[in-house]
Amino acid sequence: MNLQTLHWALIGIWGLLAVASVIVYAISRRSPKNMSELVARTRSWWVMVAIFTISFLVSNTLSIVVFALISFLALKEYFSMIPTRRADRRVLFWAYLSIPVQYFWVYDGYYGMFAVFIPVYMFLFLPFASLLTQQTDGFLKSVGTLNWGLMLCVFSISHAAFLLILPPTAANDAGGPGLLLFLIFLTQFNDVAQYTWGKLLGRRKIVPGVSPNKTWEGFLGGVATTFVLALLTAPLVTPFDMAHAAVAGLLIPVAGFVGDVTVSALKRDLGVKDTGSLIPGHGGILDRIDSLTYTAPLFFHFTRYFYY
Amino acid sequence: MLCHAERRHLMLQKAFYIFVRIAILFLLGLNVRRKEQLPVKGPAIIVANHNSHLDTMVLMALMPLTKLKDIKPVAAADYFFSSPIKAWLSEHVLGIIAVERGGKDRSRDPLQGCYDALGDGKVLILFPEGSRGEPEQMTDLKKGVSYLAERFPQAPVVPVFTHGLGKALPRGSFLLVPFFCDIFIGEPITWEGNRIQFMNTLRDRFAALSTEKTFAPWE
């Protein structure tokens, strides 16, 4: 029976996307302004939801591979846009190699290793690999930036994949896949909600030095919408009681906002608008998963602490 | 009509480039601007900066599979034809036209192979820096390309600036490290009757293309 709830949840997401697409189509027909970016963005949502649905329905293993690929693309984007040293080519190569290893711990359900592999072992290994180049000019900057990228693109994101292998509980038989669906849906929905509320009502800037388009109205509107949605969907796909659903409903939108502006700060420092051009209308893959880099680990530990 | 061996070489070339495309998609990832300006019909000359062995393969991989047989990268004979195996692969799989560097043989024009190919309506890929040199740093352009443009004034000369391939696989390295790469295709240049002026225009085009985006520093 557990599959049925998940199927209904997926159908709901497709339905929501269809409704949103109709609205976007209507707006683009009526508006005198150029709406091609909004249309491209909506089209990309269809592709992303399709990829997610297919991997979700096929198997946990495929979903873990897809998350590993997302980490790889994000890390590649990160390494391509930050200053790197030619001498560190080999170090970058080791950093990339940590991706299959980290996701193997996920596949294996080896929580202890999953939790320490990047923050302990890669953290210690990368500076060592870098010193072997015997070039100390820019050593600190190099080690610092490479480690941060690994934490952001691989360690954080792998927490979303680890949700998948959590077993069903007595309270809800949707288990790990239900929790992952809950996290991804609310994180991405919150991005759209904050953007939409900001466009409609945005007045007071919230962090003008980092992201001039973000407003208090957008932030609070997004938090409220996501909060309500969390209360409505938690009983379907998660084991949360109402109090925990409420906490998750605040945790996800607030952490998502912080992840979003953190990547914005990075982009502003580097003087780039988007992290890449992989997803038409959205920018790069890091632009799409910026919120998830904060929501995935926080939501994972919240769930693990109270239910596993 | 193509003979049996030629047809087999073309099949091999297609198979090779399907593999290359998949590898590029996963390991590199390209950000191509103005792809529609790439000439697929000859005679035409694509002029690119040279940072890596990947340059030729990436440019070839941007072409439609059915057009591959008409696209000819021009490369140094002393490097690509230095052993029988290399020579066979260079000629039949990569489709390379060899140019003698240093002018050892004065009786023959080193560009003769290029003239013949343009005469046959092929698209040439040329790297006028001559050598890959220091990755991601452009050196001065050699003027051979202006002789080709003079002989074939109707052939458009399309400048292509690439960034990132030298980071992924620089000269002297065998370890491919993934990076997203940029490929900016410029407006075609036509022959106006003056070699120096032609080379200056080409240099200006490259200068403009290379400043179209701020690239991440790499030392």
Structure description:
Chain A: It is a multi-pass membrane protein. Chain A: GO terms for molecular function: phosphatidate cytidylyltransferase activity. Chain A: Keywords: Membrane, Nucleotidyltransferase, Transferase, Transmembrane, Transmembrane helix. Chain A: The chain crosses the membrane at residues 7-27, 47-75, 111-133, 145-166, 178-197, 218-237, 243-263. Chain A: It is an enzyme of class 2 (transferase). Chain B: The chain crosses the membrane at residues 15-32. The complex is a heterodimer of chains A (308) and B (219). Chain A is an all-alpha fold. Chain A folds into 2 domains: 1-9 and 50-58 and 166-308, no CATH class; 61-164. Chain A contains 11 helices and no strands. In chain A, helix 4 packs antiparallel against helix 5 and helix 7 (175-201) crosses helix 9 (242-270). The radius of gyration of chain A is 20 Å and the shape is globular. By secondary structure, chain B is an alpha/beta fold. Chain B has one domain (4-210): Glycerol-3-phosphate (1)-acyltransferase (3-Layer(aba) Sandwich). Chain B has a 7-stranded mixed sheet with strand order 1-7-6-2-5-3-4, sandwiched between helices. The mean pLDDT of chain B is 88. At the A-B interface, helix 3 and helix 4 of A face loops of B.
